[in-house]
C-alpha cells in the first residue's frame, strides 16, 4: 500500500481557514491569494479522499472527515514547528527569564515551558508570574528578557500580539447582586492598586454615572476569582482563565457600560540580540494562536 504524505502548507491553510471562519480571511492572514488557498484545500481533499468542508448558509462547516483531519492537522503542525525550532536552535545554551500575567499561568505557560524545554534542553528558563506593573518594571530594568503583559496604551505595533475582550463577571449560581435601577452602589471586586483593569472598571462606571464601591480587594487573581464566584462583587477581566463558577454578564441587560478590548503585548528587553529570546518568543506566539480564538489574534501575517 502506497502511503500518502499530507502537504504541510495545505494543512496550515486548512487550519487557518477554519480558525478564521473563512478561507478568504485565511488567505489574507497567510499572505496568499484566495484561489491558492482553495487549491490547497482541494489538494487535501484529493489526498484524503473525502470532502472536508461543506457550505452552511454564508459560511462553511466541517464534515465528519474534516473534524478528524483538523485535530490531526493541529498536532502535525505543532510537531513540525517544534521540530524546526529545535533544529534551528540545537546549539543554544544559557538561560532566559520570562515573565507572564497570572491570567495565562494555567493556559499558556505550561505549553510554552514544555515546548521550549523539549526544543532547547540546554537552556534554563527562569519564570515569574506577576502583575502588569512589575512585569514592565523588570523588563525596563533588565531583570526579565521577555514578558507577556497587558497593553497600557504604550505598546508599539510589533509588541501588540492580541486583543482580548473585557467583560463584567459575577457568580454563576447566585442571583444578581446589583440592580441598575436600585439605590445601592455597584459592589466591585478588584485587585490591589495599581491595577490597569481596576482603573478601566472605575473609569467606565464613573463615565456612565454609576455609583460604585470597592467590596473586595485581592493581591492575586485567584482571590479575585474566588470573590466573584462567592458573589462578593462584580469583577472586570478578560474571559481567559475564567472558572466555571464565574459567568459573564450581559452589559445591556444588566445596565453596565460596554467595554473595549484590551491589548496583549510581548515585551522584550533592549539588551541587544538574544537568539534564545527569539526562539522563546516564537513559541509564545504559537501557544497563543492555539489557545485564543482566532478573532482575538492579529489579521496580518507578520503581526503574530
From TrEMBL:
Segments forming domain HTH lysR-type: 6-63
Coiled-coil residue windows: none
Entry keyword annotation includes Cell cycle: no
Keyword Transcription regulation appears in the UniProt entry: yes
UniProt keywords, alphabetically: DNA-binding, Transcription, Transcription regulation
Family, per entry: Belongs to the LysR transcriptional regulatory family.
Name of the featured protein: LysR family transcriptional regulator
Lineage of source species: Bacteria, Pseudomonadati, Pseudomonadota, Alphaproteobacteria, Rhodospirillales
Amino acid at each position: 500500500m502506497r502511503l500518502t504524505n499530507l502537504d504541510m502548507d495545505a494543512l496550515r491553510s486548512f487550519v487557518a481557514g477554519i480558525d478564521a471562519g473563512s478561507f478568504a480571511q485565511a488567505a489574507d492572514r497567510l499572505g496568499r491569494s484566495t484561489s491558492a488557498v482553495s487549491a490547497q484545500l482541494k489538494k487535501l481533499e484529493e489526498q484524503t479522499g473525502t470532502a472536508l468542508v461543506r457550505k452552511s448558509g454564508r459560511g462553511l462547516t466541517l464534515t465528519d472527515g474534516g473534524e478528524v483531519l483538523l485535530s490531526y492537522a493541529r498536532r502535525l503542525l505543532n510537531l513540525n514547528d517544534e521540530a524546526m525550532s529545535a533544529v534551528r536552535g540545537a546549539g543554544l545554551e544559557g538561560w532566559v527569564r520570562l515573565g507572564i500575567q497570572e491570567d495565562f499561568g494555567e493556559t499558556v505557560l505550561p505549553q510554552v515551558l514544555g515546548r521550549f524545554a523539549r526544543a532547547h534542553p540546554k537552556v534554563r528558563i527562569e519564570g515569574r508570574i506577576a502583575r502588569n506593573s512589575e512585569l514592565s518594571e523588570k523588563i525596563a530594568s533588565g531583570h526579565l528578557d521577555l514578558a507577556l503583559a497587558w497593553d497600557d496604551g504604550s505598546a508599539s505595533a510589533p509588541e501588540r500580539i492580541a486583543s482580548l475582550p473585557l467583560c463584567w463577571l459575577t457568580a454563576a449560581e447566585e442571583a444578581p447582586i446589583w440592580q441598575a435601577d436600585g439605590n445601592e452602589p455597584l459592589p466591585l471586586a478588584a485587585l490591589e492598586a495599581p491595577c490597569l483593569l481596576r482603573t478601566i472598571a472605575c473609569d467606565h462606571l464613573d463615565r456612565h454615572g454609576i455609583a460604585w464601591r470597592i467590596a473586595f480587594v485581592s493581591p492575586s487573581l485567584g482571590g479575585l476569582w474566588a470573590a466573584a464566584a462567592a458573589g462578593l462583587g462584580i469583577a472586570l477581566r478578560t474571559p481567559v482563565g475564567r472558572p466555571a463558577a464565574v459567568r459573564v454578564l450581559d452589559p445591556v441587560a444588566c445596565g453596565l457600560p460596554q467595554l473595549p478590548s484590551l491589548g496583549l503585548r510581548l515585551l522584550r528587553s533592549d539588551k541587544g540580540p538574544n537568539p534564545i529570546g527569539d526562539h522563546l518568543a516564537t513559541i509564545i506566539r504559537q501557544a497563543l494562536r492555539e489557545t485564543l480564538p482566532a478573532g482575538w489574534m492579529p489579521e496580518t501575517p507578520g503581526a503574530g
